[in-house]
């Protein structure tokens, strides 16, 4: 995994957006996708809000995805395998880039056809703990006509990233505005933040 971690970090340093294929193995991505589908079928996903636990607004005109927070307390073997991977990544980025990351939070994200998330920044106005955003995709056989691309805005330019299974995207939470374009089929990911404090 060191090579994949280094590739993601090098891309980030070069372009302020790290993108790497196969951050999640084929097997782990498939298991996490199965988990997410099961949770969705059991109506365990909640409408996503805007803001943090102190100030949360639910506005379907801004974002229309549903989420489920991952937690080791669930004792799910594949979620725990994912957390083990995140522990390795945090250790690597702290050792190589001196980032001082002390924790993280991640949730499953599901967009139904027609869903989107308008342009936004991940850093809260009233809480600066989120340092880096990390998105891992769970969509096998994604095609350009399926839509649902991540659009990142930088220096008056736009970068569109397709949500292909296993791909990882990494950027500074406070720096880059981004959005999820309207998806034409069910779109799944794990979205989260590396944090300090």
The low-pLDDT segments are none
If helices are DSSP runs of H or I spanning 4 or more residues, what is the number of helices? Answer: 3
Question: What spatial form do the alpha-carbon principal axes imply?
Answer: globular
Average residue-wise pLDDT: 91
Name the strands of the widest sheet in spatial order.
1-11-8-13-6-5-2
Instruction: Please indicate the percent range of residues in DSSP E strands (runs of 2 or more).
Output: 25-35%
> Span from first to last CA?
26 Å
Number of strands: 13
Biggest sheet overview? 7 strands, antiparallel
Order of helices and strands: HEHEEEEHEEEEEEEE
What Rg do the Cα atoms give? 16 Å
Structural class: alpha+beta
Helix content: 25-40%
What is the fold's blueprint, element by element?
Layout: H1 2-15, E1 18-20, H2 26-41, E2 46-47, E3 50-51, E4 56-57, E5 66-69, H3 77-97, E6 103-111, E7 117-120, E8 130-137, E9 150-154, E10 157-161, E11 168-172, E12 178-180, E13 187-195
Antiparallel strand pairs: 1-11, 2-5, 3-4, 5-6, 6-13, 7-12, 8-11, 8-13, 9-10, 9-12
Helix pairs in contact: 2-3
Overview of the molecule:
- The protein has 197 residues and is an alpha+beta fold.
- Helix content is 26%, strand content 31%.
- The protein contains three helices and 13 strands.
- The chain has helices at residues 2-15, 26-41, 77-97, and strands at residues 18-20, 46-47, 50-51, 56-57, 66-69, 103-111, 117-120, 130-137, 150-154, 157-161, 168-172, 178-180, 187-195.
- The chain has a seven-stranded antiparallel beta sheet. A four-stranded antiparallel beta sheet has the order 7-12-9-10, with no helix packed on it. A two-stranded antiparallel sheet has the order 3-4.
- Helix 2 (26-41) packs across helix 3.
- The radius of gyration is 16 Å and the shape is globular.
